[in-house]
């Protein structure tokens, strides 16, 4: 009887030990491994660019460089050569805003945006405005150039070549340039003065590069340079006595632009 009782007690104890061991093994299987941190979902980034929609504002300094002018005057002023003028104020302030989207979510290094830029006016003068061979012709032009642009830009971002924490990018843009040539004074051969404004809508394009640095989540500082061609600018045509029309055309109004700005990603 005692032997049976001892056997029963020993069997129960063995069963309890087995259950305890099984419970401990199950608990260890469910617990995270020692020193292992849970994996958090990370937002893909490339070149300091957050995924998705973004908004940017940039302050640009634009240095205009008009191409050589062409004389399209008529009457007594036709057949003469337009003289290259000077920009009295070659550097102007040019703020712009843009809304765009980054494709980094799909592992792409590209982003794109639509940008609108308003440039400050620059002053253009040519004295004399025309010449007949090497002989100056008694004409003068004092004008103001105003430009705006609406561009669609594509950017290539990379984080492979960081420079002091900034990630480089390249960009190309195309769209529409709006130019105004204000002829404040155009003197023809008879010494008469006219004032006229001429507005043009042209094809415009831009080529540039820069670098971006993320200084807090969702925020980037952008530094950039670009070359932009805004199309032609016209001064005139005016109409004066005898049907003489003063008309000067700058066929390529180009500029070099430097800027810095902030980009916020949603």
Secondary-structure blueprint:
Blueprint: H1 2-30, E1 52-66, E2 69-71, E3 81-82, E4 86-87, E5 91-102, E6 110-118, E7 122-126, E8 130-132, E9 135-137, E10 140-157, E11 167-187, E12 193-216, E13 219-229, E14 233-235, E15 248-250, E16 253-265
Antiparallel strand pairs: 1-5, 1-16, 2-15, 3-8, 4-7, 5-6, 6-10, 7-10, 8-9, 10-11, 11-12, 12-13, 13-16, 14-15
Question: What does this entry look like structurally?
Answer:
The longest helix has 29 residues, at 2-30. The chain is mainly beta. A hairpin with a 2-residue loop joins strand 12 (193-216) and strand 13 (219-229). It is built from 1 helix and 16 strands. It has an 8-stranded antiparallel β-barrel. A 3-stranded antiparallel β-sheet has the order 2-15-14, with no helix packed on it. Strands 3-8-9 form a 3-stranded antiparallel β-sheet, with no helix packed on it. The protein has one helix spanning 2-30; strands at residues 52-66, 69-71, 81-82, 86-87, 91-102, 110-118, 122-126, 130-132, 135-137, 140-157, 167-187, 193-216, 219-229, 233-235, 248-250, 253-265. Residues 1-50 have low confidence and may be disordered. It starts with a helix and ends with a strand. The chain has one domain (57-265): Porin (Beta Barrel), CATH 2.40.160.
Provide keyphrases for this structure.
single chain; 266 residues; mainly beta; Porin; 8-stranded antiparallel barrel; 3-stranded antiparallel β-sheet; 55% strand; disordered N terminus
Cα-atom Rg, whole angstroms? 35 Å
Q: What value does the average pLDDT take? A: 78
- SSE succession: HEEEEEEEEEEEEEEEE
Share of residues in strands: over 45%
In the CATH hierarchy, the third-tier topology is known as Porin
User: Which structural class matches the secondary elements?
Assistant: mainly beta
User: Number of folding domains?
Assistant: 1
Query: Uncertain segments of ≥5 residues (pLDDT<50)?
Result: 1-50
Shape: elongated
Helix content: 10-25%
For the record, what CATH class applies?
Mainly Beta
Total strand segments:
16
Question: How many alpha or pi helices?
Answer: 1
Largest sheet: 8 strands, antiparallel, barrel
CATH architecture: Beta Barrel
Distance between the termini: 81 Å
- Lateral arrangement of strands in the main beta sheet: 1-5-6-10-11-12-13-16
């Amino acid at each position: 009887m005692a032997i049976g009782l001892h056997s029963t007690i020993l069997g129960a104890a063995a069963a309890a030990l087995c259950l305890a061991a099984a419970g401990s093994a199950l608990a260890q299987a469910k617990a995270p491994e020692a020193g292992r941190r849970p994996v958090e979902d990370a937002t893909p980034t490339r070149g300091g660019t957050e995924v998705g929609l973004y908004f940017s504002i940039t302050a640009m300094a634009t240095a205009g460089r008009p191409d050589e002018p062409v004389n399209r005057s008529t009457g007594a002023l036709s057949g003469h050569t337009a003289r290259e003028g000077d920009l009295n104020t070659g550097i102007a302030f040019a703020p712009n805003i843009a809304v765009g989207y980054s494709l980094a979510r799909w592992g792409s290094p590209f982003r794109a945006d639509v940008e609108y830029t308003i440039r400050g006016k620059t002053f253009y003068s040519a004295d004399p405005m025309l010449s007949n061979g090497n002989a100056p012709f008694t004409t003068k032009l004092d004008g103001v150039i105003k430009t705006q642009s609406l561009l669609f830009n594509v950017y290539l971002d990379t984080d492979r070549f960081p420079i002091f924490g900034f990630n480089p990018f390249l960009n190309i843009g195309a769209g529409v340039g709006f130019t105004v040539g204000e002829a404040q004074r155009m003197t023809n051969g008879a010494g008469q003065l006219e004032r006229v404004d001429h507005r043009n809508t042209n094809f415009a394009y831009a080529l540039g590069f820069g670098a971006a640095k993320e200084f807090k989540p969702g925020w980037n500082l952008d530094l950039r340079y670009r070359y932009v061609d805004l199309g032609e600018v016209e001064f005139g045509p005016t109409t004066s006595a005898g049907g003489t029309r003063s008309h000067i055309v700058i066929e390529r109004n180009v500029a070099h632009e430097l800027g810095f700005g902030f980009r916020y990603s949603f």
